[in-house]
From TrEMBL:
Thiolase N-terminal domain ranges (all copies): 5-249
Enzyme type, top EC level: transferase
Keywords: Acyltransferase, Transferase
Domain Thiolase C-terminal positions: 258-378
Pfam families: Thiolase_C (PF02803), Thiolase_N (PF00108)
PANTHER family assigned: ACETYL-COA C-ACYLTRANSFERASE (PTHR43365:SF1), BLR7806 PROTEIN (PTHR43365)
GO MF, one example: acetyl-CoA C-acetyltransferase activity
Family: Belongs to the thiolase-like superfamily. Thiolase family.
EC number: 2.3.1.9
Species this chain originates from: Mycolicibacterium diernhoferi
Residues of the active site: C89, H336, C366
Protein's name in the database: Acetyl-CoA C-acyltransferase
């Protein structure tokens, strides 16, 4: 198998719902990061064999294969194809895995992976607005469970004995870390500004500075009257896009490019679809086993903060030092533009590894239906 590397990783700022990016069409927002990717790397778009693009709500603005229309919106040659992937919240992480598999196997040489979601324009759940997406046999198998992620998050809190206070402490920490990272300029090099008719958006919009457990205590539970989960310890509805340029190490050398990281291993797994959000736990174990890297060797972990109990349950099971977990904050503070989030997290993690000389980074995402991706990358010095 051919050594495969990521040579460039960029993202837009993550916009809050109805915020600075809400007037952007998903194809145009995607085109922005596609063009930034080739501008930074100097790679001629004609060398790109495919664009694999994550998107969850593939209706309205995001229908009709948004990956292909992103290529056309970017002004790239019509000969470059594009396809759209939906593995729920892990869509663009799966897009990266597909891109790597194509390059590693020798079927393709240069592939772009990434994703987009403009949730202000295509609301969460739009694709489920009509019809029954699960089917009677699935409901019968799982005792008519609603497959509501909020309820699943509540069940995780019960199983791992995670109190509202513990979840709120974690959420306040996410905002604190994100604010500190933004103030330190940690995101500047990875973000491409978005120019709108009235403004230029350069920063992630979701950070709520001064968030405290006491302030969060005043929020009403969202899913059960006496529950733990509320808007303040859940991921934010967001807008954004991100892209990664994947190729062989030999191709990077031929093009005079310095790789950021090499792809060491990827894994995807299923888990209990009722608990739904616990897949990152076995996915982490699986990807480490495949790579031969121990958990103690990994210097940073990005575990998507769909809800606070997701990384907290993962933390309880893995025993990882909490300082290594989402050190720049996560989706609770920085937002969760569904189809883009996998690529956003990978972009954030890669730049953090470069800035701090961290050898190994591991990213994992919980996903609707009880699946999860995990990806391990290694810094190229």
């Amino acid at each position: 198998m051919r050594e495969t590397v990521i040579v460039s990783a960029v993202r837009t700022p993550v916009g809050k719902r109805n915020g600075g990016l809400s007037d952007q069409h998903a194809a145009d927002l995607s085109a922005l990061v596609l063009n930034e990717l080739v501008e930074r790397s100097g790679v001629d778009p004609s060398l790109i064999d495919d664009v694999v693009w994550g998107c969850v709500s593939q209706v309205g603005d995001q229908s009709s294969n948004i990956g292909r229309y992103a290529v056309l919106a970017a002004g790239w040659p019509e000969s470059i194809p594009g396809t759209t992937v939906n593995r729920a919240c892990g869509s663009s992480q799966q897009a990266l895995d597909f891109a790597v598999q194509a390059v590693m196997s020798g079927q393709q040489d240069v592939v772009v992976a990434g994703g987009v979601e403009v949730m202000s324009r295509v609301p969460l759940g739009s694709a489920r607005a009509t019809g029954q997406p699960y089917g009677p046999k699935v409901f019968a198998r799982y005792d008519d469970f609603s497959f509501n992620q909020g309820i699943s998050a509540e069940l995780i809190c019960q199983k791992w004995d995670l109190s509202r206070t513990r979840c709120d402490e974690y959420s306040a920490q996410s905002h604190e870390r994100a604010a500190a990272a933004q103030d330190a300029g940690a995101f500047i090099d990875q973000i491409v500004p978005v120019f709108t008719d009235s403004d230029v958006i350069t920063n992630d919009e979701g950070i709520r500075r001064g968030t405290t457990v006491e302030k969060l205590a005043g929020l009403k539970p969202a899913f059960t009257d006496d529950g733990v989960i509320h808007a303040g310890n859940s991921s934010q509805i967001s807008d954004g896009a991100a892209a990664l340029l994947v190729m062989t190490a030999d191709q990077a050398l031929n093009l005079g490019l310095t790789p950021l990281v090499r792809y060491r291993a990827g894994a995807v797994t299923g888990a209990d679809p009722v608990l739904m959000l616990t897949g990152p736990i076995p996915a982490t174990e699986k990807v480490l086993h495949k790579s031969g890297v121990t958990i103690d060797e990994v210097g940073v972990f990005e575990v998507n903060e769909a809800f606070a109990p997701v990384p907290l349950a993962w933390l309880a099971e893995t025993g990882v030092d909490e300082a290594k977990l989402n050190p720049l904050g996560g989706a609770i503070a920085l937002g969760h533009p569904l189809g883009a989030s996998g690529a956003v997290l990978m972009t954030r993690m890669i730049h953090h590894m470069r800035d701090n000389n961290i050898r190994y980074g591991l990213q994992t995402m919980c996903e609707g239906g009880g699946t999860a991706n995990a990806t391990l990358v290694e810094l190229v010095s």
